[in-house]
Amino acid sequence: MAELALAIAALRRETGKPLPLRGIAFARLRHPVLPGDRLELSARERAAPEGETARLRFDLKRDRVLVANGEFIVGTPLSQHDAVADRRTRTASGGIVPSAEALLPHRPPMRFIDSILQQSADALDCIARIPGRCALVSGASAPAVAAIEAAAQAAAAWEALQRWRRQGEAAPRFGYLVAMRDIAFFTDRIPSDQSLLVSVHLEAASPPLTHYRFEVSQEGLSLVRGSVGTFLAA
């Protein structure tokens, strides 16, 4: 997610405009980006469908190799009136489950998941928190794209719980967030060190690729929702 946050910040600097984000139509994260990598950003405005806000197509390259691309939907975040409540029923976890530390390879301050609330064969609800020490945080909040990372970690926790129930072992496995689509932002910033509700629901699975619908909310208000794709390493 760091490359998306960097791309948005760079576009705002270069244009001298606030460029609020209403959503991300799609994004593909093709290669891991490492600390110290130098990335080249290019962007172009795409004609939006009639009645919709402007869209920016972007490419991120490292040594002329495409590492990520996508399309930002520019505009003020959606209002809560645009949010439709998720009324899926979850099945309670039915007992003690492994801790987030046992389920995920992430370590603080980049581990956002705090605890598992409930789960089912195709869904999971959990509590997440963006630590104030996280590099994405500035001025006691993080850009809304950080919520997508929380969703990806929730998906990884769900996958680890499925393995734990089948094999009795909670060993985490490395995976990657590789795609996202239909992302809707209801805010431009996420407060740090505050509890967030993260819900993920399995959409489709063709291992090692899996797709999930997600929603991140706080006190009943939607913050971010959409779909993500993950790739589980062997």
Write the layout of secondary structure elements.
Blueprint: H1 2-15, E1 21-29, E2 40-46, E3 55-62, E4 65-74, H2 100-103, E5 113-119, E6 123-128, E7 141-143, H3 146-167, E8 175-185, E9 189-191, E10 196-206, E11 209-218, E12 221-232
Antiparallel strand pairs: 1-4, 1-8, 2-3, 3-4, 5-6, 6-10, 7-9, 8-12, 10-11, 11-12
Please give the radius of gyration in angstroms: 17 Å
* Helix-strand category: alpha+beta
Strand tally is 12
Shape: globular
**Any low-confidence stretches, pLDDT <50, length ≥5?**
none
Q: Provide mean pLDDT, rounded.
A: 92
Question: Number of helical runs?
Answer: 3
Order the strands across the largest sheet as they lie in space: 2-3-4-1-8-12-11-10-6-5
Distance between the termini: 22 Å
Helix amount: 10-25%
Beta-strand level of the residues, as a percent range?
Answer: 35-45%
Biggest sheet descriptor: 10 strands, antiparallel
Q: Topology as H/E string?
A: HEEEEHEEEHEEEEE
Walk me through what this model shows:
With 234 residues, the chain is an alpha+beta fold. The protein has 3 helices and 12 strands. The chain has helices at 2-15, 100-103, 146-167, and strands at residues 21-29, 40-46, 55-62, 65-74, 113-119, 123-128, 141-143, 175-185, 189-191, 196-206, 209-218, 221-232. Strands 2-3-4-1-8-12-11-10-6-5 form a 10-stranded antiparallel β-sheet, with helices on one face. A hairpin with an 8-residue loop joins strand 2 and strand 3 (55-62). The protein is globular, with a radius of gyration of 17 Å. The model has no long low-confidence stretch (mean pLDDT 92).
